[in-house]
């Protein structure tokens, strides 16, 4: 009976299409949809007070092929993704801008990047950028994600954060925020910079060290940075030369640890045998890093070492080699266990190295 009443009222009020459309739009007032505000601008009649009545009006006009009503009704099917999506597609094909906006937002939220790439209607600039990044495609030349942006262009040291996909872009953006909140260091991290596959290829797998190949050296040479942190989806973090390689899913403590290697610090856990032999087989006391002095192996291993009036403490770096390594702090540091704090002495030396452009 109620449905017949709605149909009767709907027919009674169709003195003109425009008037009827305004009745419909005003009837949407109780419908909890973010697009209602756009529709309500054209409404002139009293509100329908209940959600139930609003749905009834939507159904009436959807049955009369009103594409916007179809789009708004699609939310009723949100638990059925196939029906929800097909309803929006149908409404979009009939010209509903609301349906097109909702459909594009749905594809983005569901990370259906190829569907969004093939979207037959206009996308926003932000959506186009996200699609390209998600699919590893080039961006528009004006996209801000193509250049490193620093809070302070006069920084002593600029660390460019390089990513190759949209997921990593979001993860590294959050990583940057956490790093800057946790540590006060004289370096600037850039906003993540996106490189498509023609410019940068990063490979990483579980249990393997991450490696990245710069394919367009000219593109990199035109950017402003002192060192680069490259991000892959998986793999073992490491550092070499002026580069850090790590997973975009790793923590700010991993980034700190790897950056310390670029500024002259070495791990205090046992190095792999080949590397340990290269660094630790010395014939006289040698300072191989800011935080390590290595002495030749003796029959008796002493737990401490006096150097210029300062006590150094035996550590594990050279366990697989002939030499013995000593560090300047007694406690276990973040260079041995990531979750431990950065010792005050190491923080002082790190800040000095960052300010002086030193590597040792």
Search tags:
360 residues; alpha/beta; disordered N terminus
Offer a quick outline of the entry.
The chain has 360 residues and is of the alpha/beta class. It is built from 14 helices and 13 strands. It starts with a helix and ends with a helix.
Task: Explain this structure.
The strands form three sheets. Strands 1, 2, 3, 6, 7 and 8 form a six-stranded mixed beta sheet that branches. Strands 9-10-13-12-11 form a five-stranded antiparallel beta sheet, with no helix packed on it. It has 14 helices and 13 strands. The protein has helices at 2-12, 17-27, 36-40, 51-63, 67-73, 81-93, 97-109, 113-117, 125-135, 166-182, 217-221, 252-262, 273-280, 344-356; strands at residues 157-163, 187-189, 193-194, 200-203, 211-214, 227-232, 238-240, 243-247, 286-289, 292-295, 304-307, 310-314, 324-327. β1, α10 and β2 form a beta-alpha-beta unit. The model is unreliable at 2-23, 25-32 and 35-53 (pLDDT under 50). 40% of the residues lie in helices and 15% in strands.
Radius of gyration: 31 Å
What structural category arises from helix and sheet content? alpha/beta
The proportion of residues in beta strands is 15-25%
Quantity of strands, as a count: 13
Give the helix proportion (percent range). 25-40%
Mean pLDDT: 83
- Spans where pLDDT lies below 50 across 5 or more residues: 2-23, 25-32, 35-53
Q: Sketch the topology as an H/E string, one letter per element.
A: HHHHHHHHHEHEEEEHEEEHHEEEEEH
State the major sheet. Answer: 6 strands, mixed
Give the N-to-C terminal Cα separation. Answer: 86 Å
Which shape, going by the Cα principal axes?
Answer: elongated
Number of helices: 14
